[in-house]
Amino acid sequence: MSANYFDFEKQHPRITRREAIRRALFAASGLVLANHLSFRVFGAPRNAPAKAVIQIWMWGGPSHTDIFDPKPDAGYDYCGPMKAPIETNVSGIRIGELLPLLAKQADKYSIIRSMTHGNNGHETASYLVQTGRQPGGRLVFPSVGAVVSLAKGYDAGYKGLIPPYVVVTEPQGRFDEAGFLGSRFKPFATGGNPAQTPFAVEGVVAPGITEQRQKSRRELLHQLDTLARTLPQDPQIVAVEQAESLAYDMILGDGAKVFDLSQEKPELRDRYGRSKFGQSCLVARRLVEIGIPYITINYGGWDTHKENFQTMRRQLPDMDKGMATLLQDLSDRGLLDSTIVWWGGEFGRTPKVQWEAPWNGGRNHWGKVFSAVLAGGGFKGGRVVGASDARGEEVKERPVYPVDLIGSIYAQMGIEPMMKLPNPEGLPTFVMPSSTDGIQSAGLLKEIMSV
Predict the structure, then answer these.
(1) Peptide bond before 45: cis, by omega within 30 degrees of 0?
(2) CATH number of the CATH domain containing 354
(3) Domains in the chain: how many in total?
(4) pLDDT per position as a tens digit, 324-350
(5) What is the Cα–Cα distance from 74 to 38, expressed in whole angstroms?
(6) Cα separation of 40 and 33, whole Å?
């Protein structure tokens, strides 16, 4: 990262989630409107099918050849014990043997088997995949989630209690954050574990404090607030009272209700899986229902340098259950057509297994070729885009660069590529890079875009 990033961080230090909520609430009450950034959109947005994105971020880099791009003929040194891919409900498409539920949903998603950027570092590759830009430049660009929260959230008149960009549960770090857009566009990270009761969302649900105690605290605050009774029409007092009302709506009202999974049928929660990931998928669906435009499920544990196959057997059934149920649930509720589900990580894993100690069957980082999945929001299902070679080591046909995937998501959401982004240096910066920015591109994913 450039020195500019650290200078900018010194001027705009990180804030806690609680402080982020407080600032958002005061913004809603009009106290910080003067600090809002403005921008212009070049060209009118077209009629776009997608209203929301659920990003399943496979933090650590998932093994493409064990999941969505199996290579059963490559031999034991490449497949290990996972050499029996299964047929899906779409003729000709096979996926990893530990994904039987997703195999029944293949008509709902498309697999990209030729993602590439050639970067093998976690942080730099994450920046590439989350922003579409090369790391180390003069500016630190915002992630897709931050751009969507700007274009389809605050600029679109979003007035929800919950910020328009949510991460369930822990943020990945600065690479899924706001870059030069500033702290207002950082994600609201829930913290906690949705598989636990209650789901202790930071800043919304306080562990160990009952709803009745929260109400009693509010009543005591009003009893002690003599200034508000003395100056009931003062504009600043009115604004503070509005902010307080919004805050308590988050804690005791509709804001808290969306995170209360006890409102869901136990049978549906079981279908998602009672794991942290499974219940995170259910939270994501509930957030889409109330109009949140961008949700990231940060799903860690895929950095399988050691004992790759043991990790696959432990985690893939969990992923299979949660993701397959999410797709079906969205479809059943009529939400899949307007919700993009994006699965992927920063890169893949080395196709050749490292059997020697201390790796004991591990896979290293591999940015030459890896996989991603897109479903819903105008993306066609039952398709495969691109291909890797016989061992999953190189792109064989139709390379897809991060900017191609990101640009396709923006297009499905009606976000114009020439939308101007504000930055602290006043430089002309846009949602999508131009040909002069030196970013590799092979074009939008028109083969799976319905419009």
Answers:
(1) no
(2) 3.40.720
(3) 1
(4) 999 999 999 999 999 999 999 999 999
(5) 54
(6) 17
User: Torsion over CA of 127, 132, 135 and 137, rounded to 10 degrees?
Assistant: -140
Please count the other Cβ atoms lying within 10 Å of the Cβ belonging to residue 198. 16
Rounded CA separation 177/312 (Å):
29
pLDDT value at 282 more than 70: yes
At 205, is the secondary structure helix, strand, or coil? Answer: coil
Could you give the angle at the alpha carbon of 292 between the alpha carbons of 286 and 298, nearest 5°? 75
Determine, yes or no, domain membership for 221. no
Residues 91, 107 contacting (CB under 8 angstroms): no
Query: Do 400 and 407 contact (CB within 8 A), yes or no?
Result: no
For residue 90, give its domain range.
3-205+259-448
pTM of the model: 0.83
Tell me if 122 is assigned to some domain: yes
The verdict on residue 32 lying in a domain is yes
Q: What DSSP assignment string belongs to 106-148?
A: GGGEEEEEEE------HHHHHHHHHHSS-TTSSS-PPPHHHHH
Taking 80 as the threshold, does the pLDDT of residue 253 lie above it? no
Kindly state whether residue 241 falls inside one of the protein's structural domains.
no
The alpha carbon of 343 is separated from its chain's Cα centroid by a whole number of angstroms, namely 9
Contacts of 369 (CB under 8 A, 6+ apart): 64, 113, 114, 115, 116, 348, 388, 389, 392, 393, 394, 395
Q: Give the 3-state secondary structure percentages of the chain, helix then strand then coil, rounded to 5.
A: 40, 15, 45
